[in-house]
Write a structure and sequence with these properties.
This protein is an alpha/beta fold. Helices cover 34% and strands 19% of the residues. It is globular and about 45 Å long.
C-alpha cells in the first residue's frame, strides 16, 4: 500500500449519516459500514480524530416550535452528539480499535473531559479519538467544533463526509446540471455561499491553511483513496499559495 498523504486528520460526520434509510436514530448496518471505513483508514497508519453531529437525534437550532429556547436546544443537541459518539466508540471497539470519547461538557461517567494535551497523547498512541458535545458552547455548530479541534490537534486536513461526490454549485440530487468542483478555494466557497461547512468553520480552516477534503461516504474505500492523495472528491484550499 502506498504511503498515505496525511499523518493526522480529523473526519467530520453528520449525525444524519448514521440514519441510513431510517428517518431517525441509528441504523445498525450503517453504523457498522461507517466504522469499517474508519478502521480501514486507521489501518493505513493514519492518526484519526472524529467529530460527529447529532441531527439524527436532535437539532438544537430547530426548537422554537417546541417552546424550547435556543440555548437549551443547543445543549440538548450537544448531548445528542455524545450519544452518537458513544455508539461509534462501542462499534469501533467491537473491531478491536482502541478508542477514546472526549467531550467539551464534563460527563465523567461516559467520557473524558476534553483536554488538548491528553487528546494529542491519545492520537500519538494510535487511538481513535471522538470529540463529542461540539465546542461546549451554544450557537456554535459541530462544523465549527470540527474546525476548532482540527486546529488544536494539529490535523493536516479536515475531511468532510457527505452523501454526494464532493462540492457542487447546487445540490446535484435536486439539480443534475449542477457543476462539480474537483478543486475550489476557501474564498470561492464563501463567495458562492456553497455551505459545505459553516462559514465560521471555513474561515478557521482558511486562516490556518488546513485543507478541507470532501468525499462521498457512501462509496466504499473512498475515504482511503482520498487519504492516499487520489483525485477523488473535492479539495478546498488556498489556490494562491500553490
Amino acid at each position: 500500500m502506498d504511503k498515505p498523504l496525511y499523518k493526522r486528520v480529523l473526519l467530520k460526520l453528520s449525525g444524519e449519516a448514521l440514519m441510513g434509510e431510517l428517518g431517525y436514530g441509528i441504523d445498525p448496518q450503517t453504523l457498522k459500514y461507517i466504522v469499517s471505513e474508519v478502521i480501514a483508514a486507521r489501518d493505513m497508519g493514519i492518526e484519526l480524530a472524529l467529530v460527529i453531529g447529532g441531527g439524527n437525534i436532535f437539532r438544537g437550532a430547530n426548537v422554537k416550535s417546541l417552546g424550547i429556547g435556543r440555548v437549551s436546544g443547543d445543549y440538548m443537541g450537544m448531548l445528542a452528539t455524545v450519544i452518537n459518539s458513544m455508539a461509534l466508540q462501542d462499534c469501533l471497539e467491537s473491531f478491536q480499535a482502541e478508542t477514546r470519547v472526549m467531550t467539551a461538557l464534563q460527563i465523567d461517567a461516559v467520557a473524558e473531559k476534553y483536554v488538548r494535551r491528553r487528546a494529542l497523547r491519545h492520537l500519538e498512541k494510535g487511538r481513535i479519538v471522538i470529540f463529542g458535545a461540539g465546542t461546549g458552547n451554544p450557537y456554535f455548530t459541530t462544523d465549527t467544533a470540527a474546525a476548532l479541534r482540527a486546529m488544536e490537534v494539529q490535523a493536516e486536513a479536515l475531511i468532510k463526509a457527505t452523501k454526494v461526490d464532493g462540492v457542487y454549485s447546487a445540490d446535484p440530487i435536486e439539480n443534475p446540471q449542477a457543476r462539480f468542483y474537483p478543486e475550489i478555494s476557501y474564498k470561492e466557497v464563501l463567495n458562492l455561499d456553497l455551505k459545505i461547512l459553516d462559514a465560521s468553520a471555513t474561515i478557521l480552516c482558511k486562516q490556518n491553511n488546513i485543507p478541507i477534503l470532501v468525499f462521498n461516504l457512501r462509496k466504499s474505500g473512498e475515504l482511503c483513496r482520498i487519504l492516499n492523495g487520489e483525485r477523488v472528491g473535492t479539495k478546498i484550499f488556498s489556490k494562491e499559495q500553490v
